[in-house]
Amino acid sequence: MAMNLQQKYEWIENYLAGKLEGEALSEFEAKMQNEPAFAQEVEEHRFFLETLAQMAQREQLKAQMNEFHKDLDKHKAWVFYKHPIIQNFWKKHFSTVAVAASVAILTAIGVLWNARNLNQLEDKQTAYFRSLKKDIDDVKKRQNSLEAKTEKEAITQPIDHTATAFAISLNGYLLTNYHAVKEADLIFAESKQDSLQRYQVTLFYKDEKTDLAILKIEDSTFRGFKNLPYALRLEADLGEEVFTLAYPREDLVYGKGEISARTGFEGDSLEYQISVPVNPGNSGAPLFDEKGFLIGVINRKHTLQEGAAFAIKAKYIKALIDSVMQTQKPEKPILLPQRNLIALLKRPQQIKALQNYVFELKVHKASSNTAHK
Length: 373
What we know:
The protein is an alpha+beta fold. 45% of the residues lie in helices and 23% in strands. The protein has two domains: 83-153, no CATH class; 158-373, Thrombin, subunit H (Beta Barrel). The radius of gyration is 31 Å and the shape is globular. Mean pLDDT is 80; it is low at 77-81 and 368-373.
């Protein structure tokens, strides 16, 4: 259906507000399913509206505070001069009382009167701020309770192992290996580059056959990623230069190599064999070609060949996401990045653009069984 820009955004906002029903809702969801660019636009508009709502709440509170202070200033400035007692006194005594005495008397009365009114205003102000402080304290208590519970769980469940994950959608979906998060009780994703980002994540979807898992950020502080700078490339060629970013230790580590075989272990067509050093913690790391296209996910190392590892091909990432969108139909769609913004950059600049979207996974398990890394 043809529509102008205003009509399109009204259509999107009606969907986000839950106002679409029946055929209109089916048509909208079909368009999102068939047109990834439109689905991306819907998600960006959702994020935009949420940001506006937060700003509006802050501005409303600010306006209330400004109005209160204006009211206070008005009482301070005029209560002395405009009250009937003051005016009657001035009329009665102006002609008989010396100017100095009148000023002294009026000043004394004014001070007393202003003190009385200011006390009333201060009482009003105190009551207002007590109420506001109580509301804020209640929110803080609930937040602290949640954080304390999370931290307590993390302490009582020591880190079993670490792995790597990376962002695949602006709205908080990450990708990693399923074996890295299998049977996890608590998972945190951390990035320590431009600034520390630490989010609690949950297992959203798993595919044991491809050993891929989709994680979802479940954290009130998360506001969405900026434009992801990489896009998928579904096939790569033998001998191509590749690189990866991963967390085999607490700091981000860069690894470089080539595609040494078009298939993985024992001819597995799911994987590439690559000549990139892999250690525990590399599982789930993104594999890029020299232009920064995402071509795979590090999966495991070759136990019989030093310096050889395997990576799941990007076409299976695409197939997994397509399957999830068709079968699960998540409320927030998984929107794979469509544009590569780093193809013309040199490697250090590529890494700087990528590093905030690669995360160390800290996996907590109640049992002592160690997952395959």
